[in-house]
């Protein structure tokens, strides 16, 4: 072959913000380190390598020798470092200013630490919109790699993807390369010779072609079963041997060498999209099932391949609709980003501003904003980590304005109304030095975020139980040995027994101040399983909101006239916060209460980030008597106080009632998909104080509770951390 085929291998290594340290270390030992050990031996081979900033920071802190080895290979011209946004955000999810800032800040870091000349970027999750082009080019990037699926959506055929193209937006030119879907499935899962034969066919069809491969580095050792396959049984060594053996016609090269030596195939404008699986996951659950059924039917009749190039699935941004909890994270991130930019526009600068920007960027890490084959939004530690970074950024901005949460700061409190969750309707923000709460009058007057500033923790980073497309596989039960399944993806593995019996779905998000009226005989089992009949119409109905301000004290008053058992009842609830305080005073007033029926009133609270399954995470009563772990179901009577304590986190939440309450508690658990199979995940502790309402002579009933958030234990452990504004 006169003109060699150029093969560009780009690996993408990533661990999200908030992932467990043990997961980072295991991935390093199983994938990143052994790959480097094998690759270093093959002096004639070159690759591109992208490592997300969250992983790179960990590597530089825990294994700097690994980063030094990468730097040596960069200097030798064997590895081209591919940059990108610092902390792996979905680019379409963040403001334009943050796109440019994330990319340029990581480019600077890579240049300082590794001497890398960064010319290209990894597109996180390959989520693309054409309008990104201008920001990418303004950030100094010359090229990126997408999936060939993107190009097929633009109308190109398989035979037109043996090279790269240029695209343009508002005069900004960017080189875009199609990563081969075929190679994503042969590398490393098929014998190396299968890849060689595929490349031979390409080379014969188009001499001088360029073939791009871009995929997760974790598939070389971290994915289940791949360490044994790739290293113990020698797949990677065999693959590199095969490339060297065929080096007379396969030239393994870096991305920039390919772009510098081969002309583009032409120009293309690429529709929004991602890789094929991602756009399928973005669909509503029922639509995914319809899609899969239709696909199998067409495959059965031999027609799928005819229409496959024209089938596109869903739209990534709709994950914020599919999972409203991710929209709340997204909107909170936008709030912090806007506040930071407004302060910068007013002249704010210095270390605190730079630290706040970095924390904001960390809070934009994409993994907990969506869900597909792996945990994503279903993993509480990832959601908690996003909020931790966003709250930390906000704390730093408070500190810059001398409004910090520490005891030596001047106490303050404020209340405001705006469209904080970007749904076209106003929400209410109530905040002090110590707490920040967000309330949605339009959806049941519910409290949907409660930030504890001292420990950077959102007590309402919850997740509702909802139907997923893969739940129909769960309902079939786990696969048994010897069962005929068409592929490993069809196997159903339960990480706990009886998951098919644990499915349940919520009709509302797991917020707090969710106003229920149940039947008199409703019990804990019915309520926890979502079977209790709702006798009122308050849960998701709009409330009228009034904001009140006094010196050192603010209140949002929420009221609605609705129906319970067909009878008209007015409900008013007030949330009051004092300057510098960590207590929410919550008052309820019911008016026009019928005296001939006993209303059963139960305002629901949910508390997130307080896991179950440990003795140092527990419920307790008025005198500190422990009542069980936080994951336990409790059916309590005559309670004037209930506390939830997480000693590991260093927080206690105390609920005190001015009249005795019966209380139900139960864990909210989801059945979700993960790398190792289906698993039960603890999402929040539900706490429902409830009363049989006995009105006074005027048809009125009232109750006041105080919810105090105590973080003295956490603060006493970490004085230096506390002085640094909880970063």
Automatic annotation (TrEMBL):
Signal peptide start and end residues: none
Domain of life of the organism encoding this protein: Bacteria
GO biological process: alpha-glucan biosynthetic process
GO molecular function annotations of the record: 1,4-alpha-glucan branching enzyme activity; alpha-amylase activity; carbohydrate binding
Top EC class, one word: hydrolase
Keywords linked to the UniProt accession: Carbohydrate metabolism, Glycosidase, Hydrolase
Pfam family, one: AmyA-gluTrfs_C
InterPro entries: A-amylase/a-glucTrfase_C, A-amylase/a-glucTrfase_central, Branching_enz_MT3115-like, Gal_mutarotase_sf_dom, GH-type_carb-bd, Glyco_hydro/deAcase_b/a-brl, Glyco_hydro_57/38_cen_sf, Glyco_hydro_57_N
Assigned EC number: 3.2.1.1
Domain (Alpha-amylase/4-alpha-glucanotransferase C-terminal): residue spans on this chain: 419-705
Gene3D superfamilies named in the record: 2.70.98.10, 3.20.110.20
Record domain Glycoside hydrolase family 57 N-terminal: where: 9-271
Hydrolase among keywords: yes
GO terms for cellular component: extracellular region
Location of the Alpha-amylase/4-alpha-glucanotransferase central domain: 314-396
SUPFAM superfamilies: Families 57/38 glycoside transferase middle domain, Galactose mutarotase-like, Glycoside hydrolase/deacetylase
PANTHER family given in the database record: 1,4-ALPHA-GLUCAN BRANCHING ENZYME RV3031-RELATED, 1,4-ALPHA-GLUCAN BRANCHING ENZYME TK1436
Family statement drawn from the similarity comment of this UniProt entry: Belongs to the glycosyl hydrolase 57 family.
Protein name listed in UniProt: Alpha-amylase
Taxonomy of the source species: Bacteria, Pseudomonadati, Planctomycetota, Planctomycetia, Pirellulales
């Amino acid at each position: 072959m006169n003109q060699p085929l150029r093969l560009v291998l780009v690996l993408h290594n990533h661990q999200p913000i908030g992932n467990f340290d043990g997961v980072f270390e295991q991935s390093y030992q199983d994938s990143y380190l052994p790959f480097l050990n094998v690759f270093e031996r093959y002096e004639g081979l070159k690759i591109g390598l992208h490592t997300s900033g969250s992983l790179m920071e960990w590597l530089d802190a825990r294994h700097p020798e690994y980063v030094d080895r990468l730097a040596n290979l960069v200097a030798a011209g064997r590895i081209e470092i591919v940059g990108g946004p610092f902390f792996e955000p979905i680019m379409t999810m963040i403001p334009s200013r943050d796109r440019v800032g994330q990319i340029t800040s990581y480019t600077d870091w890579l240049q300082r630490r590794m001497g890398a000349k960064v010319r290209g970027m990894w597109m996180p999750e390959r989520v693309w919109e054409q309008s990104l082009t201008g920001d990418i080019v303004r950030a100094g990037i010359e090229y990126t790699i997408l999936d060939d699926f993107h190009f097929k959506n633009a109308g190109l055929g398989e035979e037109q993807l043996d090279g790269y193209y240029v695209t343009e937006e508002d005069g900004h030119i960017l080189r875009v390369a199609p990563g081969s879907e075929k190679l994503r499935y042969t590398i490393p899962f098929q014998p190396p010779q299968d890849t060689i034969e595929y490349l031979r066919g390409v080379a014969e069809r188009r001499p001088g072609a360029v073939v791009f491969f871009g995929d997760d580095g974790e598939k070389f050792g971290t994915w289940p079963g791949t360490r044994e396959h790739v290293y113990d049984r020698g797949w990677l060594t065999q693959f590199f041997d095969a490339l060297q053996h065929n080096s007379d016609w396969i030239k393994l090269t870096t991305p920039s060498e390919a772009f510098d030596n081969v002309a583009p195939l032409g120009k293309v404008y690429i529709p929004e999209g991602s890789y094929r699986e991602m756009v399928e996951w973005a669909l509503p659950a029922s639509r995914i099932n319809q899609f899969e059924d239709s696909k199998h039917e067409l495959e059965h009749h031999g027609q799928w391949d005819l229409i496959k190039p024209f089938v596109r699935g869903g739209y990534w941004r709709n994950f914020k609709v599919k999972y409203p909890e991710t929209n709340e994270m997204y909107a909170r991130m936008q709030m912090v980003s806007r506040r930071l930019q407004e302060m910068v526009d007013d002249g704010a600068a210095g270390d605190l501003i730079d630290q706040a920007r970095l924390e904001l960027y960390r809070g934009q890490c994409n993994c907990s904003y969506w869900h597909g084959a792996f945990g994503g939004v279903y993993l509480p530690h990832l959601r908690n980590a996003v909020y931790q970074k966003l709250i930390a950024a906000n704390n730093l901005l408070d500190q810059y304005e001398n409004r910090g949460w520490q005891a030596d700061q001047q106490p303050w409190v404020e209340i405001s109304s705006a469209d904080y969750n970007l749904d076209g309707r106003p929400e209410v923000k109530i905040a002090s030095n110590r707490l920040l709460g967000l309330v949605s009058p339009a959806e049941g007057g519910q409290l949907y975020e409660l930030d504890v500033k001292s420990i950077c923790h959102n007590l309402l980073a919850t997740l509702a139980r909802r139907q997923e497309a893969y739940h129909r596989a769960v309902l079939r039960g786990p696969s048994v040995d010897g069962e005929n399944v068409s592929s490993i993806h069809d196997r159903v593995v339960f990480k706990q027994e009886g998951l098919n019996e644990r499915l349940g779905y919520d009709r509302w998000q797991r917020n707090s101040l969710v106003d229920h009226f149940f039947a008199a005989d409703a019990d804990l089992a019915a309520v926890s399983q979502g079977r209790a009949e709702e006798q009122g119409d308050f849960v998701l109905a709009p409330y009228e909101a009034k904001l009140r301000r006094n010196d050192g004290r603010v209140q949002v008053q929420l009221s609605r006239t609705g129906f319970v058992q067909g009878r008209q009842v007015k409900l008013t609830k007030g949330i009051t916060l004092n300057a510098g305080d960590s207590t929410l005073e919550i008052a309820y007033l019911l008016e026009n209460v019928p005296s001939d029926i006993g209303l059963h009133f139960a305002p629901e609270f949910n508390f997130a980030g307080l896991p179950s399954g440990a003795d140092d995470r527990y419920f307790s009563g008025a005198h500190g008597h422990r009542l069980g772990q936080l994951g336990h179901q409790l059916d309590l009577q005559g309670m004037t106080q209930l506390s939830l304590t997480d000693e590991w986190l260093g927080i206690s939440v105390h609920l005190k009632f001015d009249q005795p309450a019966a209380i139900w508690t139960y864990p909210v658990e989801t059945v979700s998909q993960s790398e190792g199979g289906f698993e039960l995940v603890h999402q929040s502790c539900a706490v429902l104080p409830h009363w049989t309402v006995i009105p006074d002579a005027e048809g009125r009933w009232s109750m006041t509770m105080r919810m105090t958030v105590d973080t003295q234990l956490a603060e006493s452990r970490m004085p230096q951390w506390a002085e640094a504004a909880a970063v």
